[in-house]
Amino acid sequence: MSAETKDLASAPLVRADRLTCRFDVSRPWLERVVAGAPRQTLTAVADLSFEIARRETFAFVGESGSGKSTVARMVVGLQQPTSGDVTIDGISMSDPRSAAAREKLRQRLQMIFQDPFASLNPRWRVDRIVAEPIRAFGIADGAAAEQRVAELLQLVGLSRTDSRKYPHEFSGGQRQRIAIARALSANPEFIVCDEPTSALDVSVQAQILNLMRDLQDRLGLTYLFISHNLAVVRQMATRVGVMYLGRLVEVAPRDELFARPRHPYTRMLLDAVPDLDMVGRQRKPVVGEIPNPISPPGGCSFHPRCPLAFDRCRTELPVMTDSAGALVACHAVADGRIS
Amino acid sequence: MNEPLLSVRNLRVEFPTRRGILTALDGVSFDIAAGEILGVVGESGAGKSITGAAIIGLLEPPGRIAGGEIRLKGERIDNLPADGLRRIRGKRISMVFQDPLTALNPLFRIGEQLSETIQLHTGMKPAAARERAVALLTDVGIPAASRRIDAYPHQFSGGMRQRVVLALALAADPELIIADEPTTALDVSVQAQIIGLMKRLCREHRVAIMLITHDMGVIAETADRVAVMYAGRIAEIGPARDVIKNAHHPYTQGLMGAIPTLVAAAGRLTQIPGTMPRLDAIPKGCAFNPRCPHTFARCVVERPELLQAERSRAACWLHAKAAI
Q: What is the ipTM of this complex?
C-alpha cells in the first residue's frame, strides 16, 4: 500500500467546512412594500464545521429548531448550503466541477427518515421499494435483484416472503426495517439517520437501535445520527455534537460528553432529561426557552438562559476552542471560569 | 382517607366494528388517592388514552363502556346521563391533552377562554372571573399575566401554551386532572419545566393527577405509583421506584431494559421479540405469553389476575405461589 492510499483511509470520510444555511422567511413582496417591512432571513445553520471518521457514528443532538435536520439534508445534498461546503471522500457536494464524481458518490450515501409511514410509497410492494436503488444505480436486474432483495429482508430481520406485501401490512417497527433494507440495498458506506426511532415505541426502538449497531459492525458503515433524545444518542454515538440555534456549542467523544459536559447548555440539557434514575430526585430548575431564530440574541446565542453569562457573552460570539479533549464554544469555559 | 378519590373496577371498553367487537380495555382495575400522581405507561395501542377517556366520559363513539364501574369518591360516574356528566367533567375531573395548540381555541383570547370556564363551573361574575384567570396564569408561571391574558394562543410558545392549558384545567379547582401525554410535544428543557410545574400544582392544590405517557423517564420523575398497561390490561401496578427498579412482570422487565439511559453502560439493549398483539388477535390466557421468556402451560390457557409481588402487583402466573 502506497503512502497516499494509506493517507486516504485514515482521512475523515465526511468533512463539513463552515456550513451555513439561511432561509428567506419574508412576507410576500406586496405586503412588505405596503407595510414598509424589510426582508427577513432565518439562519437555520451558521458556520458549522465538523468531520466524521470512517466507521464511526457521529451524532447531532439538540432541541427543535436547533438546525440538526437542516445539517443532515445539506450533508446528503438535499439542501444547498448558502455558504460553506461538505466534502465526502474528498468530493465536494456543491462544486459544479465535481458533478460527475458526485453522481458516483450518491450510490455510497443513503438516508433513513423519521417517519416510516411517510417514507415508503404505499402503492408499491416491498420488493419494488427495496429494489429501487438497486435498479436506479444499475447494480442488478431481474432475478439477481430479486435475490438481493430477499437477502436484504433477511438481513434486517424480515422474511423473504414479505417482499410481496404492501407497506400498510406492516407495523411501524417493521416499516423502519424496510426503510433500512432500502437504504442498504445499494451497498452504501455512509448513512444519514434523521431521528430514525423517534416515531417508534420503546421496545421497537430497542430492536431498531440494536439492528443498526449490528449492521454497522457487519458492513463497516459510517453513520451521521440525528436525534433530540440524549439517551438514544448516548446509546449509538462515538462522538457527539450539541447544537443550539444553528450553531455547534460542543463536540466531544461520547463518554467525555456525558461524564463531563462543559458547555452550560449541554449541562442544562443533561440535567433536564427525565431518566429512569430520577425516581424521587429533585432536579435543578431549567430557565427560559429557545429564542426566535429570526432574531437570535447577539453574542453567544445562549447568553439569556446561561447562569454564567457576563458582558463579553452578550457582545462577542465565542469560537470553538479545545478544552482537554472536547471542542467548546463558550467564553466561560475558555476563561477557565468553569472546568 | 380510606376511600380512594377515584376507583376503577373491572373496566371493559368495547368498540363494535363491522368485523366484530374489539375489546380495547379488559378488566382494568386501579385506584387513585387524593393528591396522588398515578403514572399510566404503555406502548401505543396499550389502552392508556382509552382509560383516561373512559373516566372523563369522552370515549369516541362507537366506543362504549361495556362492563365494570368507575367511582369518584364513591359515586358512580360511568353511567351518568349527559348533563350529570357535564357537572363533573371540567369541574371535578379536568383534562390536559398532548397538543396545547389544539386544546385552545385559536379565535379567542386566552383570558376569554379561562373566564368562560371559570364562570361556567363556579358561577362567578365576569370581573371576578377575570381576576381569578390572572391569578391562575400567574400561578402556572406566565410572566406579566395581567398583560398576557389578552393575547391569543398563537402568540405563546409551546411551553407557555401548555401552561395556559394547565391553568384551564385548574380553573374549577378539580379533584383529579387526567393528563394525556402533556409533555410529549415539548422540547426536553421545556418538558422539565412543565413536569416541575405539575408536581408543584399537585402539591399546592391537593389535586390528584393521572399522568398518561409513553415516556418512562417522565414517570420516574413525577409519579408516586405506576400502572403499566399491555394490550388493554394492566400488567403491573405499584410504587414508581419498585416498578422501575424491581419490576415483577416479564413485560415490565423487558420494557425497562429496552430504554436507553444516561447512566447505565451503553451495551446492547434488551429486546422483547415481536410486537404487541392487535386488538382483534389478543392471545388466550396471558396476553404477553407469545413474547414472554418464562411462558409455561398455565399462561397459555388461563388469564392471570393482578397478584401480589412484594410491594407491587403483577398480572403474571410466576407470582401465583406467593399469593397462596
A: 0.83
